[in-house]
Amino acid sequence: MASMKAVVKIAVLLAVLSSVSACSSWVYRIDIPQGNFLEQKDVDKLRIAMTKEQVVFVLGNPVAANPFDNDTWHYFYALKGGRGNNFEKRLVVEFKDDRLVNISGDFDKSADFDKPLDI
To answer: Which family does this protein fall into (predicted)?
Structure first.
């Protein structure tokens, strides 16, 4: 009789645990964005020979600054989705003599990138 009560208690305990773990899919998990959110339309505004101030006006401040190389800026955006759908984008902006010379990363250069704004 005592062993039957133990079996019933274990069965009830297992049923409760399985129902609680099934509820974990109902829990709301927030998305966690980090960094600079950039869109292709923003990157398309960049032109060769732009000043650093102009680039900051278009893209905002870079997320990572290198104190040893002030001529390379890194823009990074990551979204950790609550349901596991993660997203990352990177953009590296390079300057020479405080003028924009190149961009690289997950964004395309616009067709007008090599045309300075002055023309």
So the answer is: Belongs to the BamE family.
